[in-house]
Amino acid sequence: MKKELILGQKIRHNQLRKWRKDIPSIKEIIKKDYIYFEKWFLKYEKLINFGCRQIIKKEANGNKLKLIYSNYSKSEKKIFTNYFPLKIKVDKDFQYFFGLWCGDRLGSGRFGVGNKNKEINLYTKYYLKKLYQKPEFILTYNQGIKKPKLDYKIDKYYINKAETNIRGYCISVGIKNGIMFTFFDYLYKNLDKILTYFPNPYIFFAGLFDAEGNVFLEDSCFRWACLDKEKVSIYKKHLKKLNLFKRYDGCNLVTYNKNTFSKEILPHIKHPDKINKTNLICYSCGKLEDRFLEILKLIKNNPSITNKKLSKVLKRTKRYSQTMFLKKLGYIKSENYPKQLFITPKGLDEIQGARTR
Q: What Rg, from alpha-carbon coordinates, does the chain have?
């Protein structure tokens, strides 16, 4: 009996291995700016229609595929219904969303994005609906904080009761659709190849920047955070082609190319804070953060103060890079030696403007 079970397992494993090899390549599913989900699914369905999960019915209506299948949930066999696009247009929306998803994707068989920003979350909802999904907004927050108040609808709330020093929250926008997640994960695992088919890969990197990017004001640079060695290699290769790679600092892929970033990435970014910081670097306009306003106020109230004295007052070191940034943008000026710092009319206007905001 035991030998028969082992033989049966071996046969099943060999069959599954053969079917996995039949999954089409990226080249086979992309044609004329469309990704054909249907071509991938025709091969993939053999893997899922094998065992506990059974496909009951497939029904196509235009570009929309309705899939009804049975599966076990909490030790009980249930019927599920999911929807899919037979083909996905590789347009601006897809390129941005795929970049965003690569950085902030959900796990546990859920298809969607986890982010705190309202603009990004509402966009995610818009694009998921474009793919015939019915997303829900789920807010998860740690027990050490009050329930965050938001000005848009949240469908479900969960309190994370695990012991942790992190006292934050996250909003996930998505749907339970393991097949759609698997398809996008298949695209992700073939990232190097699929990027070569994108009409405008800058848009992909704008989406990735909204998920994993940061603007380092003191160094006037833009950074994509990534620790995965394989993905770092892929991103580096394509960012170089786009003239947006200078170095990798161990955590971030860094660029100082303000001209290309402002022209090709900025128009597609949706995160307000990242847009604001980019405008500060590229166009010397925007709202300063409180840490910079604090320095401006001290210089205003203490004309001719030096960087050394400024650091003592703030009880912080390394203020030089921040005062250099303020000077570069015209908020302060320096005179004499050692350099004495003075507020400029632009700096006074910024302080006044901050009071009325």
A: 26
List, for residues 14-64, the tens digit of each pLDDT value. 555 665 677 899 999 999 899 999 999 999 888 777 767 788 999 999 999
Give φ, ψ of 171 to 5 degrees. -115, 125
Angstrom distance (rounded) from CA 51 to CA 22: 19
pTM: 0.91
The domains of the chain, with CATH numbers, are 2-88 (no CATH), 90-189 (3.10.28), 198-283 (3.10.28.10), 290-356 (1.10.10.10)
- What are 111-160's pLDDT values in tens digits? 999 999 999 999 999 999 999 999 999 998 888 788 888 999 999 998 88
Residues in contact with 108: Cβ distance below 8 Å, sequence separation at least 6, in sequence order: none
The three-state secondary structure class of 94 is helix
Dihedral sign for Cα atoms in the order 280, 285, 288, 292? positive
